[in-house]
Design goal:
Strand content: 5-15%
Strand order of the largest sheet: 3-2-1-4-5
CATH architecture of the largest domain: 2-Layer Sandwich
Structural class: alpha/beta
Number of strands: 5
Shape: extended
Number of domains: 4
Order of helices and strands: HHHEEEHEHEHHHHHHHHHHHHH
Number of helices: 18
Length: about 475
């Protein structure tokens, strides 16, 4: 006879059905969790690879994350990354087409990976890495092929490399003749990178100080010997003569270093956009300052710096700025006043205390002067400020990118084009965390309206679908 506290047959059946449904739900959740985990594994592996890690460290990280359970093999991770690299190339082909009408200035340089050049081009204001081509060389024809698709390009900043110079010259010739594949257009102006010029100056200046310091130490040492001899009551005439000769050598070397440093500072001021008094710089004054400095910096060790400073491209940023300002503000007095106002406003953030108060008064007086010259001076000032802010005189942007690539040189024995494509897509979608670009990624700063700025989601999109979305946006605009 069944006890009264035993469950009935219907109750047991209901419990069995409930357990079955819960079991099925758990198995389904497990399957979904495994699928999600694999997707995250692929994202983690591709992101780590784009940041510079190689396969072995990536597998090690996955083993820590997965607690040793179901860790993919090195070959599997390699296949995941290879697929991401190939997809990145297809996505970048679409994004590069959308960027071409928005890029007007480019900083260009090359960096070597085990004797193979990687040609890099960066838009300096947004820091978009617009090109990263592996080889085959750095000749002018190679640079020309890389530059030719950028039909809106107006200005290039680079070092004095002969290949870069020839590439731009070929581009200008093709634009002038309207050859096949190249539209007729204005020539591209070239600015010689001020960073490399100043680097050459300070490299030689460092040698001057390196020579002066040991001589100064030697003179001090001889002087101490003279004092010691005098305290001992011995004849110090011979030691005193040696000390005087040592001090003459040290002072002469020290004076040469000080004079050379002043000349280098004079060159630095000549390459700046504004003179020390707040007036907008121009080629005539800057060239005069450079000539005076070069009259001091004599000798073969200054030959390279002298050649760069006498190159007309060194001061081309001043010519371009003056031309642009004349088109925006035709009145010379108003244009000069607006430029001085921008200069003094830019100095406010660098000063404190009494000096800041004095500059603030100068700003107020300059605003009154601009108001007297034009009622619509604020609109004109906004245009002038934009032109001055967007004037580029150094290829620092591409040098920053090269510093990122140098971290990958020691880790990767071989850098393929697909690997560069993956790194480039990751860089262009990565949000800046510091500085004036903080909170936005390079594509956003360039004004490119994408469905998403998440680099992994962008990588999963079909390139043709992405092209259609971008073309639809262009037509709407």
């Amino acid at each position: 006879m069944r006890a009264s506290w035993w469950p009935s047959y219907e109750e047991l059946r209901a419990q069995n059905e409930q357990l079955r449904s819960e079991n099925d739900a758990l198995w389904q959740a497990l399957e979904e969790a495994e699928t999600l985990a694999q997707s995250k594994q692929r994202e983690l592996a591709s992101t780590a690879f784009a940041m510079g890690l190689s396969l072995t460290p990536i597998v090690t990280i996955l083993s820590v994350v997965l607690s040793g359970l179901g860790v993919p093999s090195r070959a599997t991770v390699g296949r995941w990354i290879q697929h991401s690299c190939e997809q990145a190339g297809r996505v970048l082909a679409v994004l590069d087409e959308a960027c071409r009408t928005r890029v007007f200035t480019l900083c260009m340089d090359e960096i070597f990976f085990h004797q193979i050049p990687v040609l890099a081009m960066v838009e300096p204001h947004s820091m978009v890495w617009v090109a990263g081509q592996r080889g085959p060389d750095r000749k002018g024809e190679t640079w020309f092929a890389l530059l030719e698709p950028w039909s809106s390009l107006e200005r290039v900043i680079s070092d004095a490399g002969s290949g870069l110079e020839k590439g731009v010259r070929l581009l200008n010739e093709a634009r002038a003749e309207g050859t096949e594949g190249t539209e007729v257009g204005n020539p591209v102006s070239v600015g010689l990178d001020a960073f490399h010029t100043l680097y050459e100056l300070h490299k030689v200046l460092a040698r001057y100080w390196k020579r002066a310091e040991p001589l100064l130490e030697a003179a001090c040492k001889v002087e101490r010997e003279v004092e010691k001899i005098k305290r001992q009551g011995r004849d110090a005439r011979g030691a005193s003569a040696r000390a005087r000769a040592a001090w003459r050598r040290a002072e002469a070397s020290f004076d040469r270093a000080v004079l050379a440093e002043k000349a280098c500072e004079q060159v630095r001021a000549a390459l700046a956009l504004f003179r020390p008094a707040g007036e907008l710089n121009e080629r005539g004054w800057a060239q005069q300052q450079i000539n005076e400095a070069m009259a001091i910096l004599l000798g073969q060790e200054w030959d390279k710096a002298r050649r760069l400073l006498h190159d007309p491209r060194t001061l081309s940023h001043l010519d371009g700025l003056h031309q642009d300002l004349e088109q925006v503000v035709a009145e010379p007095q108003l244009r000069a006043a607006l430029c001085r106002l921008w200069y003094w406003r830019s100095q406010l953030g660098r000063l404190q205390g009494l000096r800041r108060a004095r500059v603030a008064k100068l700003v107020m007086l300059q605003e009154v002067s601009c108001q007297r010259l034009s009622r619509d001076w604020k609109r004109a000032y906004a245009q002038v400020a934009q032109l001055i802010t967007h004037t580029v005189r150094a290829s620092s942007a591409v040098e920053c990118l090269n510093s990122v690539l140098r971290m990958h040189q020691n880790r990767h024995r071989y850098v393929s084009q697909e690997m560069l494509d993956l790194k480039r897509l990751f860089w262009n979608c990565r949000r800046f965390t510091h500085g004036k670009r903080r909170g936005a990624c390079p594509y956003q700063l360039l004004g490119l309206d994408l469905p998403t700025y998440n680099w992994w989601k962008l990588l999963q999109m079909d390139p043709e679908e992405l092209r259609q979305q971008l073309s639809t946006q262009e037509v709407t605009v």
